[in-house]
Amino acid sequence: MKKYILYTYFGLLLLFPIVLLFLPATFFDSGDTICFSVLFFDQECYACGMTRAIQHLIHFDFVKAISFNKLSILVFPLLIISYFKEIRRLYNILF
Known about the structure:
By secondary structure, the protein is mostly helical.
């Protein structure tokens, strides 16, 4: 049973970036915020706009990404490194 869950997790990890590539860059741009800092204190935190910025970075829209969150330029490479480390870890476990 544990292997089945790991295979499912591995498949979802491989599918996730493909889905983000096929979504338009503006997919997350509209809608209300769910950030607790904005909802409770009416003040943006360091992560506000990060999802929208990362989505724009995936689509190589750097100017728009920086306008949403300047830290996304640092976070995006770290996400990529973490993603590939997790893929390699799961691959070593499963195969």
